[in-house]
Specification:
- This protein has four domains: 55 residues, no CATH class; 76 residues, no CATH class; 52 residues; 58 residues.
- It has ten helices and four strands; from the N terminus they run ααβαβααααββααα.
- By secondary structure, it is mainly alpha-helical.
- The N terminus is likely disordered.
- It has a two-stranded antiparallel sheet with strand order 1-2.
Protein backbone atom coordinates (compact mmCIF):
# COMPACT_ATOMS: atom_id res chain seq x y z
CA UNK A 1 0.00 0.00 0.00
CA UNK A 2 1.28 3.44 -0.94
CA UNK A 3 1.64 5.71 2.06
CA UNK A 4 1.99 9.43 2.63
CA UNK A 5 5.77 9.24 2.85
CA UNK A 6 6.30 8.86 -0.88
CA UNK A 7 8.60 11.85 -1.33
CA UNK A 8 12.08 11.06 -2.59
CA UNK A 9 14.88 10.96 -0.01
CA UNK A 10 18.57 10.94 -0.66
CA UNK A 11 20.84 8.28 0.77
CA UNK A 12 22.05 10.62 3.50
CA UNK A 13 18.50 11.58 4.54
CA UNK A 14 17.46 7.92 4.57
CA UNK A 15 20.44 7.04 6.78
CA UNK A 16 19.59 9.86 9.19
CA UNK A 17 15.97 8.68 9.31
CA UNK A 18 17.04 5.15 10.23
CA UNK A 19 19.44 6.41 12.90
CA UNK A 20 16.68 8.58 14.38
CA UNK A 21 14.28 5.61 14.51
CA UNK A 22 16.90 3.46 16.24
CA UNK A 23 17.61 6.22 18.76
CA UNK A 24 13.87 6.56 19.48
CA UNK A 25 13.56 2.79 20.03
CA UNK A 26 16.57 2.86 22.38
CA UNK A 27 15.15 5.83 24.31
CA UNK A 28 17.96 8.21 23.34
CA UNK A 29 15.70 10.54 21.34
CA UNK A 30 12.19 11.83 22.15
CA UNK A 31 9.29 9.95 20.60
CA UNK A 32 7.44 11.36 17.60
CA UNK A 33 4.14 13.21 18.07
CA UNK A 34 1.04 12.86 15.90
CA UNK A 35 -1.33 15.59 14.69
CA UNK A 36 -3.10 15.77 18.06
CA UNK A 37 0.15 15.96 20.02
CA UNK A 38 -0.03 12.36 21.25
CA UNK A 39 3.10 10.25 21.52
CA UNK A 40 3.56 7.51 18.91
CA UNK A 41 5.18 4.33 20.14
CA UNK A 42 8.50 4.04 18.24
CA UNK A 43 8.17 0.22 18.13
CA UNK A 44 5.01 0.43 15.99
CA UNK A 45 5.85 -0.59 12.38
CA UNK A 46 5.95 2.11 9.77
CA UNK A 47 3.22 0.53 7.65
CA UNK A 48 0.85 1.04 10.64
CA UNK A 49 1.87 4.54 11.66
CA UNK A 50 1.96 5.90 8.09
CA UNK A 51 -1.49 6.80 6.81
CA UNK A 52 -2.60 5.79 3.28
CA UNK A 53 -2.03 8.29 0.50
CA UNK A 54 -5.71 9.01 -0.09
CA UNK A 55 -6.07 10.51 3.43
CA UNK A 56 -3.55 13.25 2.57
CA UNK A 57 -1.82 13.00 5.95
CA UNK A 58 1.25 15.24 6.17
CA UNK A 59 2.85 13.43 9.13
CA UNK A 60 2.63 10.02 10.76
CA UNK A 61 -0.51 9.45 12.79
CA UNK A 62 -2.59 6.64 14.27
CA UNK A 63 -5.92 8.33 13.64
CA UNK A 64 -6.57 6.15 10.61
CA UNK A 65 -6.23 3.03 12.82
CA UNK A 66 -9.03 4.13 15.15
CA UNK A 67 -12.77 3.89 14.62
CA UNK A 68 -13.43 7.19 12.84
CA UNK A 69 -16.86 6.34 11.39
CA UNK A 70 -18.65 6.23 14.75
CA UNK A 71 -22.22 7.60 14.58
CA UNK A 72 -23.96 8.80 17.72
CA UNK A 73 -27.36 8.02 16.23
CA UNK A 74 -26.73 4.30 16.59
CA UNK A 75 -28.29 2.68 19.64
CA UNK A 76 -27.99 -0.66 21.44
CA UNK A 77 -31.54 -0.73 22.81
CA UNK A 78 -34.09 -3.32 21.72
CA UNK A 79 -37.80 -3.64 21.17
CA UNK A 80 -40.15 -3.56 24.16
CA UNK A 81 -41.76 -6.95 23.73
CA UNK A 82 -45.39 -7.34 24.67
CA UNK A 83 -45.90 -3.61 25.30
CA UNK A 84 -49.48 -2.34 24.84
CA UNK A 85 -50.25 1.19 23.67
CA UNK A 86 -54.04 1.34 23.66
CA UNK A 87 -56.98 -1.08 23.77
CA UNK A 88 -60.22 0.01 22.12
CA UNK A 89 -63.74 -1.07 23.05
CA UNK A 90 -65.19 -0.91 19.53
CA UNK A 91 -63.93 -1.58 16.05
CA UNK A 92 -62.23 1.37 14.37
CA UNK A 93 -62.01 2.15 10.73
CA UNK A 94 -58.89 0.87 8.87
CA UNK A 95 -58.13 -1.57 11.74
CA UNK A 96 -57.43 -5.27 11.37
CA UNK A 97 -60.60 -7.11 10.33
CA UNK A 98 -59.63 -10.19 12.30
CA UNK A 99 -58.53 -8.87 15.75
CA UNK A 100 -59.35 -5.15 15.61
CA UNK A 101 -55.84 -3.71 16.23
CA UNK A 102 -54.75 -0.58 14.38
CA UNK A 103 -51.08 -1.47 14.07
CA UNK A 104 -51.48 -4.06 11.29
CA UNK A 105 -53.88 -5.31 8.64
CA UNK A 106 -55.63 -8.65 8.24
CA UNK A 107 -52.87 -10.13 6.06
CA UNK A 108 -50.21 -9.43 8.72
CA UNK A 109 -52.33 -10.50 11.71
CA UNK A 110 -50.60 -13.06 13.95
CA UNK A 111 -53.72 -14.02 15.94
CA UNK A 112 -55.78 -17.11 15.26
CA UNK A 113 -58.20 -16.57 12.38
CA UNK A 114 -61.62 -16.03 13.87
CA UNK A 115 -64.78 -17.52 12.45
CA UNK A 116 -66.34 -14.05 12.52
CA UNK A 117 -63.86 -11.18 12.66
CA UNK A 118 -63.86 -8.29 15.10
CA UNK A 119 -65.04 -5.99 12.32
CA UNK A 120 -68.49 -7.62 12.41
CA UNK A 121 -68.74 -8.68 16.07
CA UNK A 122 -67.20 -5.62 17.86
CA UNK A 123 -66.04 -8.03 20.58
CA UNK A 124 -62.64 -9.02 21.96
CA UNK A 125 -60.79 -6.15 20.31
CA UNK A 126 -57.03 -6.78 20.46
CA UNK A 127 -54.81 -4.02 21.90
CA UNK A 128 -52.50 -1.97 19.71
CA UNK A 129 -48.85 -3.04 19.77
CA UNK A 130 -46.02 -0.66 20.48
CA UNK A 131 -44.14 -0.05 17.22
CA UNK A 132 -40.52 1.04 17.50
CA UNK A 133 -37.77 1.67 14.96
CA UNK A 134 -34.07 1.55 15.83
CA UNK A 135 -31.02 2.44 13.79
CA UNK A 136 -28.54 -0.26 14.77
CA UNK A 137 -24.87 -0.29 13.86
CA UNK A 138 -22.97 -3.17 12.26
CA UNK A 139 -22.47 -5.05 15.53
CA UNK A 140 -25.99 -4.43 16.78
CA UNK A 141 -27.56 -5.96 13.68
CA UNK A 142 -25.48 -9.11 14.06
CA UNK A 143 -25.65 -9.50 17.84
CA UNK A 144 -27.60 -12.70 18.44
CA UNK A 145 -28.01 -11.90 22.15
CA UNK A 146 -29.28 -8.36 21.64
CA UNK A 147 -32.46 -7.89 23.68
CA UNK A 148 -32.02 -11.07 25.71
CA UNK A 149 -33.32 -10.81 29.27
CA UNK A 150 -31.22 -12.93 31.62
CA UNK A 151 -33.93 -12.86 34.29
CA UNK A 152 -36.10 -15.15 32.16
CA UNK A 153 -33.69 -18.01 32.85
CA UNK A 154 -34.94 -18.04 36.45
CA UNK A 155 -38.12 -19.70 35.16
CA UNK A 156 -36.05 -22.58 33.77
CA UNK A 157 -34.26 -23.00 37.09
CA UNK A 158 -37.55 -23.00 38.99
CA UNK A 159 -39.00 -25.67 36.70
CA UNK A 160 -36.04 -28.00 37.19
CA UNK A 161 -36.00 -27.42 40.95
CA UNK A 162 -39.71 -28.24 41.14
CA UNK A 163 -39.07 -31.44 39.18
CA UNK A 164 -36.29 -32.48 41.57
CA UNK A 165 -38.43 -31.73 44.62
CA UNK A 166 -41.29 -33.81 43.23
CA UNK A 167 -38.93 -36.69 42.49
CA UNK A 168 -37.42 -36.63 45.99
CA UNK A 169 -40.87 -36.48 47.54
CA UNK A 170 -41.99 -39.48 45.48
CA UNK A 171 -38.92 -41.50 46.48
CA UNK A 172 -39.47 -40.75 50.15
CA UNK A 173 -43.09 -41.84 49.91
CA UNK A 174 -42.08 -45.11 48.25
CA UNK A 175 -39.50 -45.80 50.96
CA UNK A 176 -42.03 -45.10 53.71
CA UNK A 177 -44.51 -47.51 52.12
CA UNK A 178 -41.86 -50.23 51.98
CA UNK A 179 -40.87 -49.63 55.61
CA UNK A 180 -44.50 -49.81 56.74
CA UNK A 181 -45.01 -53.13 54.96
CA UNK A 182 -41.82 -54.66 56.35
CA UNK A 183 -41.98 -53.50 59.98
CA UNK A 184 -41.89 -57.08 61.19
CA UNK A 185 -38.85 -58.08 59.15
CA UNK A 186 -35.31 -58.24 60.45
CA UNK A 187 -32.98 -55.24 60.88
CA UNK A 188 -30.94 -56.29 57.86
CA UNK A 189 -33.95 -55.94 55.60
CA UNK A 190 -34.68 -52.50 57.01
CA UNK A 191 -31.11 -51.40 56.32
CA UNK A 192 -31.44 -52.53 52.73
CA UNK A 193 -34.63 -50.56 52.31
CA UNK A 194 -33.16 -47.34 53.68
CA UNK A 195 -31.35 -46.44 50.51
CA UNK A 196 -30.07 -42.95 50.09
CA UNK A 197 -32.32 -41.00 47.74
CA UNK A 198 -29.36 -39.51 45.95
CA UNK A 199 -27.93 -42.94 45.18
CA UNK A 200 -31.31 -44.13 43.92
CA UNK A 201 -31.54 -41.17 41.61
CA UNK A 202 -28.01 -41.58 40.29
CA UNK A 203 -28.40 -45.31 39.71
CA UNK A 204 -31.41 -44.63 37.49
CA UNK A 205 -29.73 -41.93 35.46
CA UNK A 206 -26.23 -43.24 34.84
CA UNK A 207 -24.01 -46.31 34.88
CA UNK A 208 -20.57 -45.81 36.39
CA UNK A 209 -18.91 -48.65 34.48
CA UNK A 210 -19.37 -47.23 31.00
CA UNK A 211 -19.56 -43.95 29.11
CA UNK A 212 -21.87 -43.46 26.14
CA UNK A 213 -20.83 -41.15 23.29
CA UNK A 214 -21.64 -40.60 19.63
CA UNK A 215 -19.49 -42.47 17.15
CA UNK A 216 -19.27 -40.96 13.66
CA UNK A 217 -19.89 -43.45 10.89
CA UNK A 218 -20.61 -43.23 7.18
CA UNK A 219 -24.22 -44.24 7.81
CA UNK A 220 -25.01 -41.13 9.82
CA UNK A 221 -23.66 -42.06 13.23
CA UNK A 222 -24.64 -44.62 15.82
CA UNK A 223 -24.22 -44.86 19.55
CA UNK A 224 -21.32 -46.94 20.83
CA UNK A 225 -20.09 -47.88 24.28
CA UNK A 226 -16.62 -46.59 25.17
CA UNK A 227 -15.20 -47.81 28.48
CA UNK A 228 -12.70 -45.88 30.52
CA UNK A 229 -9.10 -46.98 30.25
CA UNK A 230 -8.55 -46.59 33.98
CA UNK A 231 -10.89 -46.35 36.94
CA UNK A 232 -10.72 -42.89 38.45
CA UNK A 233 -10.17 -44.27 41.95
CA UNK A 234 -7.03 -46.18 40.93
CA UNK A 235 -3.64 -44.58 41.50
CA UNK A 236 -1.75 -43.57 38.36
CA UNK A 237 1.63 -45.12 37.58
CA UNK A 238 3.63 -41.96 38.18
CA UNK A 239 2.04 -41.49 41.62
CA UNK A 240 2.99 -44.89 43.04
CA UNK A 241 6.47 -43.72 44.01
CA UNK A 242 7.19 -39.99 44.05
CA UNK A 243 10.95 -40.48 44.42
CA UNK A 244 12.88 -38.86 41.56
CA UNK A 245 15.33 -41.78 41.39
CA UNK A 246 12.58 -44.42 41.14
CA UNK A 247 11.39 -46.09 37.93
CA UNK A 248 11.36 -43.85 34.86
CA UNK A 249 7.94 -42.80 33.52
CA UNK A 250 7.59 -41.84 29.86
CA UNK A 251 4.68 -39.38 29.53
CA UNK A 252 4.52 -39.67 25.76
CA UNK A 253 3.81 -43.41 25.71
CA UNK A 254 2.46 -43.54 29.31
CA UNK A 255 4.77 -46.42 30.07
CA UNK A 256 6.81 -47.34 33.15
CA UNK A 257 8.90 -50.40 32.34
CA UNK A 258 10.51 -51.00 35.72
CA UNK A 259 8.89 -51.75 39.05
CA UNK A 260 8.35 -48.47 40.97
CA UNK A 261 8.43 -50.31 44.35
CA UNK A 262 10.96 -53.15 44.01
CA UNK A 263 11.48 -53.57 47.80
CA UNK A 264 7.79 -53.68 48.74
CA UNK A 265 5.80 -56.82 49.52
CA UNK A 266 4.65 -58.44 46.24
CA UNK A 267 1.31 -59.36 47.81
CA UNK A 268 0.52 -55.69 48.48
CA UNK A 269 1.57 -54.32 45.07
CA UNK A 270 -0.99 -53.87 42.32
CA UNK A 271 1.48 -52.70 39.65
CA UNK A 272 4.79 -54.42 38.87
CA UNK A 273 5.88 -52.46 35.79
CA UNK A 274 5.15 -52.87 32.09
CA UNK A 275 7.99 -55.39 31.61
CA UNK A 276 6.30 -57.75 34.06
CA UNK A 277 3.16 -57.84 31.91
CA UNK A 278 5.14 -58.10 28.66
CA UNK A 279 7.14 -61.11 29.85
CA UNK A 280 4.30 -63.14 31.33
CA UNK A 281 0.94 -64.59 30.38
CA UNK A 282 -0.40 -64.36 26.84
CA UNK A 283 2.02 -61.56 25.93
CA UNK A 284 4.91 -64.03 26.05
CA UNK A 285 3.02 -66.51 23.90
CA UNK A 286 2.28 -63.79 21.39
CA UNK A 287 5.98 -62.93 21.19
CA UNK A 288 6.86 -66.58 20.57
CA UNK A 289 4.26 -66.90 17.82
CA UNK A 290 5.59 -63.72 16.17
CA UNK A 291 9.14 -65.03 16.34
CA UNK A 292 8.07 -68.36 14.86
CA UNK A 293 6.27 -66.57 11.98
CA UNK A 294 9.40 -64.54 11.19
CA UNK A 295 11.65 -67.59 11.22
CA UNK A 296 9.22 -69.59 9.08
CA UNK A 297 9.03 -66.78 6.53
CA UNK A 298 12.84 -66.64 6.37
CA UNK A 299 12.89 -70.39 5.73
CA UNK A 300 10.59 -70.06 2.70
CA UNK A 301 7.10 -70.62 4.14
CA UNK A 302 4.33 -68.22 3.09
CA UNK A 303 3.18 -67.06 6.53
CA UNK A 304 2.55 -63.59 7.91
CA UNK A 305 1.36 -62.82 11.44
CA UNK A 306 -0.48 -59.61 10.55
CA UNK A 307 -1.86 -60.62 7.16
CA UNK A 308 -3.10 -64.09 8.20
CA UNK A 309 -3.04 -64.38 12.01
CA UNK A 310 -5.21 -67.51 12.15
CA UNK A 311 -2.93 -69.36 9.73
CA UNK A 312 0.17 -68.29 11.66
CA UNK A 313 -1.38 -69.40 14.97
CA UNK A 314 -2.33 -72.81 13.50
CA UNK A 315 1.19 -73.32 12.13
CA UNK A 316 2.67 -72.41 15.51
CA UNK A 317 0.42 -74.94 17.28
CA UNK A 318 1.41 -77.66 14.80
CA UNK A 319 5.06 -76.71 15.29
CA UNK A 320 4.75 -77.12 19.07
CA UNK A 321 3.08 -80.52 18.65
CA UNK A 322 5.78 -81.72 16.26
CA UNK A 323 8.50 -80.37 18.57
CA UNK A 324 7.08 -82.21 21.59
CA UNK A 325 6.74 -85.38 19.53
CA UNK A 326 10.35 -85.12 18.33
CA UNK A 327 11.54 -84.57 21.91
CA UNK A 328 9.70 -87.66 23.11
CA UNK A 329 11.13 -89.77 20.26
CA UNK A 330 14.65 -88.55 21.00
CA UNK A 331 14.17 -89.31 24.67
CA UNK A 332 12.91 -92.83 23.89
CA UNK A 333 15.86 -93.60 21.61
CA UNK A 334 18.35 -92.37 24.23
CA UNK A 335 16.70 -94.51 26.94
CA UNK A 336 16.75 -97.56 24.67
CA UNK A 337 20.47 -97.15 24.06
CA UNK A 338 21.14 -96.76 27.79
CA UNK A 339 19.00 -99.72 28.83
CA UNK A 340 20.26 -102.06 26.10
CA UNK A 341 23.52 -103.64 27.39
CA UNK A 342 24.31 -105.20 24.04
CA UNK A 343 23.72 -102.72 21.28
Amino acid sequence: MATASVSFKSREDHRKQIELEEARKAGLAPAELDEDGKVINPHIPRYMSSAPWYLNAERPSLKHQRKWKSDRNYTKSWYDRGAIVFKADKYRKAACENCGAMTHDANSCMDRPRKVGAKWTNKHIAPDEKIETFELDYDGKRDRWNGYDASTYALVIERYEARDDARNKYLKEQQLKKLEKNDQNSEEDEDDLRVDEVKVDESKQMEFAKVEKRVRTTGGGSTGTVRNLRIREDTAKYLVNLDVNSAHYDPKTRSMREDPLPDADPREKFYLGDNQYRNSGQALEFKKSNLHAWEAFDNGQDVHMQAAPSQAELLYKNFKVMKDKLKSQTKDTILEKINDPYP
